[in-house]
Amino acid sequence: MPGQPPAPGGAPAAPAGAELPLGVAPSPLALLLLGRDRDLASERGVDCPGDLPAASDPALADRARRARAALGDRAFVLGHHYQRDEVIEFADVTGDSFKLAQQAAARPEAEYVVFCGVHFMAESADILTSPSQQVVLPDLAAGCSMADMAALGQVEDAWEVLAEAGLADSTVPVAYMNSSAAIKAFTGRNGGTICTSSNADRSLRWAFERGERVLFLPDQHLGRNTAVLQLGLSLEDCVVYNPHKPGGGVTVEQLRAAKMILWRGHCSVHGRFSKDNVDDVRARIPGVNVLVHPECRFDVVTAADSVGSTEHIIRTLEAAPAGSSWAVGTELNLVSRLAKAHPDKQIVFLDKTVCYCSTMNRIDLPHLVWALESLVEGRMVNRIVVDGDTAHWAKVALERMLALPGSGTTRG
Ligand code: SF4
Question: Is residue 219 within 6 Å of ligand 1 at its C-beta?
Fold first, then answer.
């Protein structure tokens, strides 16, 4: 399509929100940047053909229930922990990205996997499910700003920089689960593996058995926190590769000396928390325990009492004694839900200002109703398809991770 922007992560682009008869292979999809108002030439993902129900429709929840019941076992609805309550209510299973992809793969009888999460998660589900299963993302504008910070072309350029410096052969790429299928495939092609936020240490150890240094994509914070706090490397062992600067903004000598080459990417939600937030909450709530996600910055993580994946955060709060106080540094939908689920504990959000994941929040009840009702009516919408070659190499990288000891049950 002329003038169509490339999808984030270098994935091929094509019309979004297109209606297709069931069983008809769709064109590749485009993800769309937010904030482009009514420019439909660049905002196709926000356009939902047919009738997107009004958010004010009081019958929305009933419509979702009816459509869900009509689909029965033909559909499987997955809800990421960071989704809104109005959406989570309709999820058959909730979890983090990796658990959800595994769950989707474990339901081969489900014809449709409706993924209430963001684009890279739906891609992982498509890679791990059988070819007969079709993955639907209710709003194609639900991308991930972190995943978008590492486009395939940029990463290939960086690899070329390493190759010209004679360093590519001794460098092992490790990609965080929160990356596009194209980046996962790059990692698979180049002898690397994937990691989640709970097995990043094992993935890095695996990589250091095979090379002298790691190219860690795309979250610099998870890479740095894991390398320094879990593997015992120093901050000086890490360099940040900035894809927007020639040569990554680092010298060949710096690359050669580095053990960790950290891609300059971050989560726009977890990257907001600051050391000041930690100091402030400790001053306000005596005895508070600070619990944060490893996508937070190094100074936040080192100032916290406990660091771990979303599942670690959930388990820690479940096991916490009544009366204890917690300040939690992760996405606000999840923190609010945990606070409601544990009224015997004081659970507050680490930041004083609102910090939802704006792209996760793109999936709302109107989009879920639209997607479910479309499937009931025999219209496939917003299908996420990863092309065969990309899926193959991404799966190679994912399977290397799954082969790590204990990784069959890890969460990311
Ligand atoms: S919370 Fe961060 S990593 Fe997760 S989807 Fe949102 S921007 Fe991406």
Answer: no
Q: Which residues contact 297 (CB under 8 A, 6 or more apart)?
A: 221, 271, 273, 274, 275
Site to probe by mutation for ligand 1, drawn from 33, 82, 116, 297 as the one with most ligand atoms within 8 Å of Cβ, is 82
- Compute the radius of gyration of the chain from its Cα atoms: 21
Residue 4 in contact with ligand 1 by CB distance below 6 A:
no
Name the pTM for this structure: 0.86
**Amino acid, res. 339:** A
Q: Which domains does the chain have, with CATH numbers?
A: 8-142+359-381 (3.40.50.10800), 147-268+394-407 (3.40.50), 270-349 (3.40.50.10800)
- Alpha-carbon distance 84 to 65, whole Å? 16
The secondary structure of residue 146, as a DSSP letter, is H
The one-letter amino acid code at 301 reads: V
Position in ligand 1 atom list of the atom nearest CA 267: 2
Give the residue ranges of the annotated binding site for iminosuccinate: 80, 97, 176-178, 197, 293-295, 310
Tell me how far CA of residue 274 lies from CA of 160, 292, 332, 368, in angstroms.
Answer: 35, 11, 15, 34
Q: Which tokens sit at 112? A: 């449709």
* Separation of alpha carbons 222 and 26, rounded Å: 35
Give the tokens for residue 262.
């950290």
What H or E segment, with its residue span, contains residue 379? strand 379-381
Task: Quote the tokens at residue 49.
Answer: 């053909």
In tens, the pLDDT along 32-73 reads 444 333 333 333 345 566 678 888 889 999 999 999 999 999
Q: Which two tokens stand for residue 43?
A: 């905002």
Q: Is 392 left (phi over 0), alpha (psi -120 to 50) or beta?
A: alpha
Q: What is the 3-state secondary structure (H, E, C) of 51-117?
A: CCCCCCCCCHHHHHHHHHHHHHHHEEEEEECCCCHHHHCCCCEEECHHHHHHHHHCCCCCCEEEEEC
pLDDT at 185: 98
Cα–Cα distances in Å, from 177 out to 144, 270, 406?
Answer: 12, 16, 17
